[in-house]
Design brief:
Structural class of chain C: alpha/beta
Strand content of chain B: under 5%
Largest sheet of chain C: 6 strands, mixed
CATH topology of chain B: Arp2/3 complex 21 kDa subunit ARPC3
Number of domains of chain B: 1
Distance between the termini of chain C: 35 Å
CATH architecture of chain B: Orthogonal Bundle
Order of helices and strands of chain C: EEEHEEHEHHHEHEHEEHHEE
Strand content of chain C: 25-35%
CATH class of chain C: Alpha Beta
Number of strands of chain B: 2
Number of helices of chain B: 7
Strand order of the largest sheet of chain C: 6-7-8-3-9-10
Oligomer: heterotrimer
Number of helices of chain C: 9
Low-confidence stretches of chain B: 212-226
CATH superfamily of chain C: P-loop containing nucleotide triphosphate hydrolases
Chains: A mainly alpha, B mainly alpha, C alpha/beta
Strand order of the largest sheet of chain B: 1-2
Order of helices and strands of chain B: HHEEHHHHH
Structural class of chain B: mainly alpha
Shape of chain C: globular
Helix content of chain C: 25-40%
CATH topology of chain C: Rossmann fold
Helix content of chain B: 55-70%
Number of strands of chain C: 12
CATH architecture of chain C: 3-Layer(aba) Sandwich
């Protein structure tokens, strides 16, 4: 249940942070979180900064331009929003690095199944689509026409559709085969067979083989 | 529409989660009724499909490419409930497994893209298919991109109104409707065109394949109800 | 013609799949790339087709250094893509045109060749695809898709053929045709396979990739196929107990993996 606790702790932390409107408090929390993160902290921080850079820069510059022109510019606001976003994104990356979502979903078996199955198929799809992209580059000696690019996108989508329909059918069969849909509630426990199982006899090794050696 | 955490106020995302929770319960119950033991494998496959579609780059008028969305495809081929749940799960996996962030925006995105997008698709398709099926698919797909864009632009533009200090300084996203609406909608008009093209081609592919899904194709009026 | 020097490559967020690989291929050579699944054969072929850049090391084609800038477009890209072609392991990744004929004619048409249609007809005939000419590629079986993909790249009449597991889904007739074609074509051919019985037919020189991305062997094919220790360390043969002729023993051997399907 530990992973699930971390999940709810993360969610609670996110909600709590969005109720804080003092930049210094957010900065302090960021320092605390960095301290708690252990060895990977700078890598996570770097990833977090890179992840929000474009969007935050655009919003910050846009806000500065609009509010300097229309009046009402607040440097405190810029500090607040950027610190908040950085802290939240950092928490998100930290969560993903420390906690396995698939484990955290154990509180709901159905959700757990769905998420695990989907994650596996997503890996396969990502690799397949990578091959599609590379093959398209390989087959185009000159810049491809719009129609070719459109067809290429459609071919990828078609491939995904085919594979996912097959996957749904196969997985259903596999789950049935493993007894996932059988309801054993109310049945008595399975009795062991009346005959004892045959004793395990190891095969003779090469050296001890009584047969002719070639 | 990737909105990093920290730009949506709790006054927005908490009610959004409440609404999304109800919508998820509605969708899940409906699916269990029609699919029962096949729900889990089907939903997993559709989630992977939705995620994969988001990786496909579609040419957009104007020369660039953008990521496809696939909401229209899923809604037209598999129905609103499956599409909505699959997209919600994709958003969940993206933010908590693949580290793309955006957990606060998840409910807004799920409602805007997954639900509103799917419902608009099916309504537009059913309304227009009598005139011309291909055009109906194209318009439905275009709507499946533009309507969620509008909703997200509204959600963002709302922030300065619902979350500000006494002196009017914003606390979350700083721009009002006057900026968010054109800034978000205009690109989406073009992205929608790319999505329409892809969806039409895939629709034809699915038809030509005569491909068999255990669920009847949603456009035929059986099975799923929007 | 192809010169790889100390290539090191890793896919994002993965350990290196090629580590210190150096290789030199002369024009007209027929090379067989051997290695177990996951040993980096496909990656090496993609690298030779200019689809991925190594993290370190150099790749020269026809004396020209292959850099990302060179492959951005323009005359060099055109020349390279028409001279060096790759058949992917999963050929469906290569197909995106509405009919088989369009698929095979795509490359020549893109290059603006006047005889594009004639080439398409010729290569369809060579691979026995004429009856399928107007069918959609996605509707074909695995083996047919592989033939279409093969025809599509051969139609460019390239100088270098990079083939990733080309016989894995081909039926015996088609794979027989392919073996004859490769021997007679005079082009530079690099074929990857983990099917040792076919490997002997596909070239004169063998390059063996081991698990970990290092080159374990580079030399005459027959020598490589005879070296049981090498093959076992590259996970191309195995040993397990088996019985034949009333005798039970264990020794390294191969099976005809997927050689007749």
């Amino acid at each position: 249940m530990k992973a699930t606790h971390w999940l709810f702790a993360y969610l609670a932390a996110v909600v709590a942070v969005t109720f804080i409107h003092e930049p210094w408090l957010l900065a302090a929390l960021l320092v605390v979180v960095l301290a708690m993160s252990g060895a990977g902290r700078w890598r996570i921080l770097r990833r977090a900064v890179l992840a929000v850079l474009t969007f935050n820069l655009t919003v910050s510059l846009g806000y500065s331009a609009v509010s300097l022109w229309q009046g009402g510019f607040s440097a405190a606001y810029l500090l607040l929003v950027n610190l908040r976003v950085l802290l939240l994104v950092y928490l998100g990356f930290w969560f993903v690095a420390r906690v396995n979502l698939l484990e955290a979903c154990r509180f709901s078996p159905s959700l757990s199944f769905v998420v695990t199955l989907a994650a596996g198929q997503i890996e396969a799809f990502s690799r397949a689509l990578r091959d599609f992209r590379l093959a398209f580059v390989s087959r185009n000696a000159a810049a491809p026409a719009l129609s070719a690019r459109a067809r290429h996108a459609a071919a990828q989508a078609g491939h995904l559709l085919d594979k996912s329909v097959c996957m749904a059918a196969e997985t259903a069969l596999a789950m049935r085969s493993r007894g996932c849909f059988d309801d054993h509630a109310g049945l008595p426990p399975l009795q062991p067979a009346s005959r004892p199982a045959p004793a395990w006899r190891p095969h003779r090794s090469e050296a001890a083989s009584p047969f002719r050696k070639p | 529409m990737h909105i990093p955490d920290g730009f949506l106020s709790p006054q927005t995302y908490l009610p959004a989660y409440a609404a999304a929770g109800l919508a998820w319960a509605w969708a899940a119950r409906g699916l269990r009724r029609t699919l029962d033991e096949e729900t889990v494998p089907r939903l997993a496959a559709m989630t992977a499909l939705a995620y994969g579609l988001g990786l496909v780059m579609v040419p957009i008028p104007g020369g660039t490419s953008g990521h496809a969305l696939g909401v229209a495809m899923l809604a037209l081929l598999f129905g609103v409930r499956l599409g909505f749940l699959a997209y919600s799960l994709v958003l969940l996996l993206q933010s908590l497994l693949f580290g793309a962030g955006g957990i606060t925006a998840l409910a807004v995105n799920a409602l805007a893209m997954g639900l509103a997008g799917s419902v608009a698709t099916v309504l537009a398709f059913r309304g227009l298919r009598r005139l011309n099926e291909t055009a109906a698919v194209a318009v439905a797909a275009w709507t499946s991109v533009v309507l969620p864009g509008l909703l997200v632009a509204l959600a963002l533009g709302l922030q300065p109104l619902v979350a500000h200090r006494e002196d009017g300084t914003p606390l979350f996203f700083p721009f009002g409707f006057a900026i968010t609406l054109p800034a978000v909608l205009i690109p989406h008009l073009f992205i929608g065109a790319g999505e329409a093209l892809l969806t039409v081609m895939v629709w034809r592919f699915a038809r030509a394949r005569k491909w068999h899904s255990p669920l009847p194709l949603a456009g035929e009026g059986q099975g799923e109800r929007a | 013609m192809i010169e790889l020097t100390d290539i090191r490559f890793a896919w994002p967020d993965a350990p290196p799949v090629l580590d210190g690989v150096s290789l030199s291929v002369r024009e007209g050579e027929k090379l067989v790339l051997l290695g177990a699944n996951g040993s980096g054969k496909s990656t090496l072929l993609k690298l030779m087709n200019g689809l991925v850049q190594p993290q370190s090391g150099r790749y020269r084609y026809a004396g020209e250094e292959m850099t990302p800038a060179k492959l951005k477009g323009g005359a060099w890209t055109r020349r390279f893509r028409s001279e060096v072609v790759l058949l992917f392991q999963h050929p469906e990744a290569m197909l995106f045109n509405p009919t088989v004929r369009d698929e095979i004619a795509y490359g020549p048409r893109q290059l603006g060749l006047a005889d594009a249609e004639a080439r398409a007809e010729r290569w369809m005939a060579a691979l026995g695809l004429t009856q399928l000419a107007d069918k959609a590629p996605f509707a074909l079986s695995g083996g047919q898709k592989q033939k279409v993909a093969l025809a599509a790249i051969l139609a460019l009449e390239p100088r270098v053929l990079l083939l990733d597991e080309p016989v894995s889904s081909l039926d015996p007739r088609a794979s027989g045709w392919l073996v004859d074609y490769l021997l007679d074509c005079g082009k530079t051919v690099i074929v990857s396979t983990h099917n040792l019985s076919m490997a002997a037919e596909l070239g004169e020189r063998a390059v063996v990739l081991g698990e970990g991305g290092r080159l374990l062997f580079d030399g005459p094919l027959q020598d490589g196929l005879r070296d049981r220790v090498l093959l076992e360390s590259a996970n191309l043969v195995h040993r397990h107990r088996h019985r034949h002729d009333g005798v039970e023993h264990a020794h390294t051997h191969t099976h005809d993996w997927e050689s007749s399907r």
